[in-house]
Design a protein that fits this description.
two-stranded antiparallel sheet, 34% helix, alpha+beta, elongated, 137 residues, 4 strands
Length: 137
């Protein structure tokens, strides 16, 4: 799928030598799935990820944006946001095994220089230090 504009909101040109879908036809399976979704859900219900992906796949295979919008009742804004979301989506990777989850420990430490009578807490993160003190007597 190639876009004519950098923001990815508008015209999508078909990929060269795309097979299977004519430019003005939305796949019948996609039309049936959308019709079923629209019948079984209230207006303004979020379109499931599987249907969003199917729409983007149809556009990538050469369906025209206009045909998709007309047949499925979608807006340019919806399709554009799905395209941006697809570009942002992280690549799925296999989970790393053998690494423990991070743990937080409560540590109490008194300072060697005269003690800390005000009950301050200090959190150190690299070169940063955050000190929390009780202000009311």
């Amino acid at each position: 799928m190639r876009s004519d504009r950098q923001d990815g909101l508008a015209r999508v040109r078909p990929a060269p030598h795309s097979a299977g879908v004519a430019s003005d036809e939305v796949p019948a399976d996609l039309q049936r799935r959308f019709a079923s979704f629209r019948r079984s859900n209230a207006s303004r219900t979020r379109v499931p990820a599987s249907l969003r992906k199917a729409v983007l796949d149809a556009l990538g295979q050469g369906c025209s944006m206009l045909a998709v919008r007309r047949e499925l009742g979608l807006t340019v804004k919806q399709i554009g946001s799905w395209q941006r979301e697809a570009r942002r989506a992280p690549v799925e990777t296999e989970p790393v095994t053998g690494i423990e989850s991070p743990r937080v420990f409560a540590v109490g430490e008194r300072r060697a220089t005269g003690g800390d009578a005000d009950g301050a807490l200090e959190l150190r993160l690299g070169a940063w230090s955050l000190i929390i003190r009780h202000t009311c007597p």
